[in-house]
Design goal:
- The structure holds two protein chains of two kinds.
- By secondary structure, chain A is an alpha+beta fold.
- In chain A, 30% of the residues lie in helices and 21% in strands.
- In chain A, a hairpin with a 5-residue loop joins strand 6 and strand 7.
- The two termini of chain A are 27 Å apart.
- By secondary structure, chain B is mainly α.
- Chain B has two domains: 151 residues, no CATH class; 143 residues, no CATH class.
- The longest helix of chain B is centred in the N-terminal third of the chain and has 33 residues.
- The model of chain B has no long low-confidence stretch (mean pLDDT 89).
- The chains are: A alpha+beta, B mainly alpha.
- The interface between A and B is medium-sized, with 22 and 21 residues.
């Protein structure tokens, strides 16, 4: 017997599958028993099968520091799933819907009357300094009043098991294809478990995405022409772009495939000539979208796209400028934002966040920097962060200088003890830290994925789960125990 | 469909076909050299001529020996037309159109490239070469089969078939051109039996031997071989057949008028030719014309659709 739960210790933190006593949580019982019956050889076979499935399917992830020429790297996948009881999940789902709804109202307000600023809830100075506020978007009315149609929010659990939102990704969140692929691989490998458990499906995401996008078409009634706009094959998420286009039956286009005419109509170049495009699911950043308006050197974008969008002749998802609400300083205000627009308390709490722009909070961060995680406002993927407890003295001093120089750009959070889940290391299990990224689609209605992408820090003790920094992923099972 | 995508499907098919053809070519040459007496020094140079890569070869290597040519034609990715280079290009093209081709087919393209790369050294030794080349040929055939069986036969599929057939047309003319040059009537009397072997090798390079035999039951004659490889309607690698295929593809595509006209002209020229009467020079000129025709068709397709 290869997996012995007796030697798996849960100490002073929350484990997704096991309690502190070492016994499985109710929802994980069947899984743990099943894993215990596996022989070394079977585990090895599972691992090989998972690896080869991933290799052959070409699920790869680009890491920027990797040598030139090798743009492929298999995205590590751990075969032990993470399990969450449906009852618990329903609350999380409500919380995510609430959050995204409020954020969309917030963005729409910022580009119109800015009532939240006038009412003194959100400081004007933050808006003035924001790197992601786009003056070009002021006064624009996107369809349904929605700016962030696709949102990926990162959740973590602390010691006691409470879910917190760590950040919201409102620009071009990625990872959903890995969620879908992981499930496919798991169904191949663990089919017995799928019979035993009632695991809620995730496969309807592409069709929900299609519906969300189709509802934005400027020519309602006709079958809309939807395209996915990708920066191309050298982008780290290219696999996902192709995957989603394929799953939706949409064209996968690059900037060069599109053109905008003098009447602000967007066309794609096809073998028949030019064909009109209605909705663009764009996977390139704002600043590369349109060289006429933003970065003039961008070869990825489409000249004239912004005027077509402003004229309402084409829909863009997410809308340009939506990123204003996902920087880490805005994050600190989300509970107030929810209260302001919806008059509700946040269902999922934020991680307590110190805003360095406020002098007392700044001083607190500097005094306690060895306990803090310090984050710049506008970086993603774990770049440019300081993890206080693990950093050297020199690094901490460097960050103190950075904070003093540009306080608005930094927030800090106490170091959480992230939850763990059993993860295969060689042929036995060890705890590894993880987070969860559910995806929320907002259109005529709001849909949340059943679970999401669980990212796991594969290095022992590490809490950095980003795929760009050596993280891996797991399948996430939302199980309905009442129906099981 | 998107012009860019049509372009990539087309080239994916061309590169896959090129990898397969190159594998056949190397394989047949290996066998041919074993059968010929040592005083006929055909060697490996004709392979470089067939693929028009002689100049490029000399930039990278000094000596035309078996080892160098095999390396250059099989595993040297500096040569984009090598087997590995072609498979890589096929993979790069298909990687960008994964929303168009069925997933199993992409997986197969990916696997074929990866395994061919891993084992490419084994092609250098004669003993393992056959297995290696065979696995490349089978791999490409598997992809073709998968595409035929699982891909919707829509416009994208037509571009795929056009790419495959034009690549075939190109290779057929190249093989005839170079091989026939060394198979001249001025061959000394005592060597005529070997002329037969060489015509057989021409047929075999195009996997045409068995099919030729079924159709023409006399001893192998130059004029018959030429007619079979150029004018036969039903053999998949005959030049005429490939043109008919391209024509059928175009029939299902928009804005096809001008290209179909070009093809009709070339077909007419081809069928009118009396190959029996062509001496080597005339044959060479004729093949040149056919090749120019293929190039023109390719360019017109590019301009029209991509």
């Amino acid at each position: 017997m290869a997996i012995r739960w007796g030697s798996y210790k849960v100490k002073n933190l929350y484990d997704e599958l096991l309690r502190a006593t070492g016994r499985p949580r109710p929802a994980a019982q069947a899984l743990c028993s099943y894993l215990r019956t596996l022989k070394d050889k079977e585990i090895e076979e599972y691992k090989v099968a998972a690896e080869s499935a991933i290799h052959v399917m070409g699920i790869t992830f680009t890491v920027y520091t990797e040598e030139e020429g090798s743009i492929d790297r298999a995205w590590p996948f751990d075969i032990i799933p993470r399990i969450i009881d449906k009852q618990e999940w329903l609350t999380v789902e409500q919380g995510l819907k609430q959050r995204v709804q409020a954020l969309n109202l917030f963005i729409d307000d910022l580009y119109h009357q800015q009532k939240i600023v006038k009412d003194g809830i959100f400081p004007a100075v933050l808006l003035e300094d924001s790197k992601n506020f786009r003056p070009e978007c002021v006064g624009v009315n996107p369809p349904l009043g929605i700016w962030a149609h696709i949102c990926g929010s990162d959740l973590v659990r602390d010691k006691d098991g409470t879910f917190y939102v760590l950040e919201d990704n409102l620009r071009v969140p990625s990872g959903v294809s890995y969620m879908l692929e992981n499930r496919l691989v798991m169904k191949r490998l663990f089919s017995e478990m799928f019979e035993q458990y009632n695991i809620l499906p995730v496969d309807d995401y592409p069709s929900q995405l299609y519906d969300t996008l189709a509802a934005l078409s400027p020519r309602p009634g006709d079958q809309p022409e939807i395209v996915v706009l990708t920066p191309g094959i050298y982008n780290s998420a290219y696999f996902e772009h192709a995957y989603l286009a394929q799953q939706m039956g949409a064209e996968l286009v690059e900037g060069g495939d599109l053109t905008v005419d003098d009447n602000n109509i967007v066309y794609m170049r096809t073998i028949e000539g030019l064909t009109r495009v209605d909705v663009i699911y764009r996977r390139i950043d704002d600043l590369f979208l349109d060289p006429e308006v933003f970065n003039p050197d961008s070869l990825l974008g489409v000249p004239g796209l912004m005027r077509a969008w402003k004229a309402g002749k084409v829909a863009l998802a997410n809308a340009p400028g939506a990123g204003v609400a996902d920087d880490k300083v805005v994050y600190a205000f989300v509970p107030e934002i929810i209260k302001y627009y919806l008059d509700q308390d946040a269902i999922i709490p934020n991680v307590p966040t110190y805003k360095c722009i406020n002098k007392p909070e700044r001083q607190y961060v500097i005094d306690h920097i060895d306990e803090m995680v310090v984050k710049p406002a506008n970086e993603s993927g774990g770049y440019g962060m300081l993890i206080g407890p693990q950093a050297s003295k020199k690094e901490r001093e460097k960050f103190i200088r950075l904070i003093r120089r540009d306080p608005r750009n930094y927030v800090a959070q106490p170091m959480l003890t992230l939850s763990t889940a059993p993860t295969l290391v060689d042929n036995h299990v060890e705890p590894r830290h993880l987070d969860l990224r559910p995806f929320i689609l907002s259109g005529e209605q709001i849909n949340v994925t059943m679970g999401g992408l669980t990212r796991v820090a594969l290095r022992k003790g590490s809490t950095v789960v980003n795929s760009s920094q050596g993280g891996g992923s797991k399948d996430t099972w939302i199980v309905d125990m009442e129906a099981t | 469909m998107l012009s860019r995508v049509a372009n990539r499907v087309y080239w994916m098919a061309r590169y896959l076909e090129r990898a397969e053809n190159t594998a056949r070519l190397v394989n047949v040459n290996t066998h041919l050299l074993l059968d010929l007496p040592k005083k006929i020094r055909l060697g490996w140079e004709p392979i470089l001529d067939i693929t028009s890569l002689r100049d490029y070869f000399y930039e990278l290597y000094e000596e035309v020996d078996e080892r160098n040519v095999i390396r250059f034609m099989v595993s040297d990715t500096r040569n984009p037309d090598s087997i590995l280079g072609s498979l890589n290009m096929a993979r790069e093209n298909s990687r960008t159109i994964r929303d168009i081709i069925p997933r199993e087919a992409w997986e197969q393209v990916n696997t074929l490239y990866l395994t061919s790369k891993t084992h490419s050294r084994s092609a250098v030794t004669q003993r393992h070469r056959y297995d290696y080349l065979r696995s490349v040929i089978l791999g490409v055939q598997t992809i073709s089969g998968m595409l035929a069986g699982t891909m919707t036969h829509d416009e994208a599929y037509e571009f795929l078939r056009m790419g495959r057939n034009l690549e075939r047309a190109d290779m057929t003319t190249r093989i005839i051109d170079v091989r026939s040059a060394s198979l001249l009537p001025d061959m000394p009397e005592e060597l005529t039996p070997f002329a037969n072997i060489q015509w057989v090798s021409v047929l075999k390079s195009l996997t045409a031997y068995q099919m030729y035999r079924r159709k023409i039951r006399q001893r192998i004659r130059r004029a018959d071989v030429l007619a079979f490889l150029l004018q036969e309607e039903h053999f998949p690698r005959s030049f005429y057949h490939t043109l008919c295929q391209v024509n059928a593809c175009l029939d299902n595509l928009p804005r096809n008028g001008k290209i179909m006209q070009l093809i009709a002209q070339l077909q007419k020229k081809l069928l009118r030719a009396n190959l029996e009467k062509f001496n080597q020079d005339k044959l060479h000129d004729f093949i040149d014309e056919l090749q120019l025709g293929v190039i023109k068709i390719n360019d017109t397709i590019s301009k029209n659709y991509f």
